[in-house]
Design goal:
mainly alpha; 6 helices
Length: 180
């Protein structure tokens, strides 16, 4: 079995879809088209020109207030416009954020895999349950405390991740066979 064929269950946690799953790359043409559209729109809407245009639009709307006697219809125009734009942008931004998140995870996975001293069990850890991530965060916080005290880092970190992900694992860092 290849490394990337190891199932999430075998790694000790459940998942819906991961970047290691080969089905992740096989996308429908409509999905790819939406991806291109969402990327283009989020880049465009994040530009200074669009931001300045939005400010100008609000200023024009505010200036027309006295003309329309600050009526309900006048207020409804800006409320409806902002609601529709916000509603649609949430989905476009989320799609772009998902894509960026996957790219960052893949880059981090490559860095972990390429570093000899790194624990490769951290690859794909973003799919672990929150409880397991909290255990790992606590472990690394303890490790940071050790470094702050000037204590020596354990010579090998291999296996610590697997130990921490087990349900019955304690949160102890062993340095020279003494718990800290």
């Amino acid at each position: 079995m290849k490394l990337n064929e190891k199932t999430a269950k075998e790694r000790g946690f459940e998942t819906v879809s991961t970047t290691a799953d080969t089905s992740f790359a096989a996308t429908h043409p409509v999905v790819r088209a939406f991806d291109r559209f969402a990327s283009a729109v989020t880049r465009w809407t994040g530009s200074p020109v669009v931001f300045c245009s939005a400010i100008l639009l609000v200023i024009v709307w505010a200036i027309t207030g006295p003309v329309f006697h600050y009526s309900n219809g006048w207020q409804l125009v800006i409320n409806t416009g902002t609601t529709i734009v916000t509603f649609l942008m949430v989905f476009l931004i989320q799609q772009s954020q998902n894509k960026d998140s996957i790219a960052v995870h893949l880059k981090l996975n490559e860095l972990i895999a390429s570093h000899r001293a790194a624990d490769n069990q951290l690859i794909g850890i973003e799919d672990a349950p929150e409880q397991s991530l909290r255990k790992l965060a606590a472990y690394y916080a303890d490790l940071a405390d050790l470094a702050e005290k000037g204590a020596k880092k354990p010579e090998t970190m291999q296996g610590h991740v697997a130990d921490l992900l087990r349900e019955d694992a304690d949160r102890k860092i062993i340095v020279k066979d003494e718990p800290i």
